[in-house]
Amino acid sequence: MPKKMTYLQRSSEKNSRRRRNVKFASIFFAIILFGFLFRNFSGGVVHTVLYPINKTASFVFSPIRNFGTYLHSKTKLVEENKKLINDKKFLQIELLSIENLRSENEQLRNALGLKNNTEEISAEIILTPPFSPFDTFVIRVVDPVKIKIGDRVFANGILVGEVLELHSQNAIVKLLSSSGTKVPVKINDEIIAEAIGQGGLSFLIQLPKDILVDNGYLIYALGSEKTVIGTIEYIDKPENSSFQTIYFKFPFNFSDLNFVQIKGV
Predict the structure, then answer these.
(1) Does residue 56 sit within a domain?
(2) Rounded Cα gap, residues 218 and 229, in angstroms
C-alpha cells in the first residue's frame, strides 16, 4: 500500500510540472504572436509609456549636466582671469620702470651735467631653472670683452640680478631673489628697507608693525637706477611679535623671459 501511494504522488507531481510548463510556453508564444500581429500597436504603447519618462529624465538631469558645464567654464574663466591680472601687473610695473623712472633718471643726469656712457647689451637666455642652478639663469655671450662680473642685468627694465660668472660663450646670472641675497629697497617710494631673497623669484621684508603698508604697494630696488622689482602680495602680522613680514616676488616667471639687458655698474 505505501509503495502504491508513493507512485501516485510522483505521478501527480510530474503531471503538475507538465501542466505548468505547458502554461508558461503558451503564454510565451501568445506574447510573441501578439507582438508580431500588433507590432505597430505595441510600439505605440511603448512610446506612449516611455515618452513621459524620457521627458521627465531630461527635465531632471539636464540642469545637472548644464551645471557641470557651467562649473568647468567658470574654473577656466577664473584661471584666465588670474593670468590676465598677473599680465596687467607686469605691464604696469614695466611701464613705470621704462617710462617714468628712466625719464626721471635722465632728467637728473642732465641737471648734473652727466653723460650716460653705459652701454646696454642684449643677451639671449639659454637656460633657466630647473636646468640651471636655483635662481640663476645662463645667457649667451657674443662678445665677452663687453661684459664683466658684477654687471647689472635687467629684464624689460626691471633689475633682476647681476653677472656671477663669465665664460667665453656664456655667463651665469645670479638673481636678486637668490636665497639670502640682501637688496636695499624702497616701499611705495616712501619706506627704506632691506629685502632678503627667498629663492623661487620671491623676497621677504621685515618691518615694525607700526609702519603702515598694504598689498599692492610697489617695491623699488635702490641703486644707480631705481627700478620696480615687485609689489606687496601678502603681509603676515603675528600677534606675539612686534614685527610684520612682507612677502613679494618678481612680476614674471622664467618662462616669460627670452632676452635680458646687461649694463655696467
Answers:
(1) yes
(2) 8
pLDDT per position as a tens digit, 148-173: 999 999 988 889 999 999 998 999 99
pTM of the model: 0.57
Judge contact between 186 and 199, C-beta under 8 A: no
Q: Which residues lie closer than 8 Å to 132 by C-beta, 6 or more apart?
A: 138, 172
Q: In terms of residue numbers, what domain contains 256?
A: 120-263
Dihedral sign for Cα atoms in the order 86, 91, 96, 98 = positive
User: Do 14 and 129 fall within a single domain?
Assistant: no
> Do 251 and 135 fall into the same domain?
yes
How many residues are given for the chain? Answer: 265
At 68, give phi and psi (nearest 5°).
-60, -45
Domain final residue, candidates 32, 60, 88: 60
In the numeric block, the cell 574663466 is attached to 77
Q: What share of the chain is helix, strand, coil (3-state, %, to 5)?
A: 45, 30, 25
Q: Does residue 81 form part of some domain?
A: no
Provide the H-helix boundaries in the chain.
Answer: 2-37, 39-95, 102-111
| Whether 175 contacts 139, CB under 8 Å | no
How many C-alpha atoms does 211 have within 13 Å on its Cβ side?
A: 17
Confidence of residue 77 (pLDDT cuts 50, 70, 90): confident
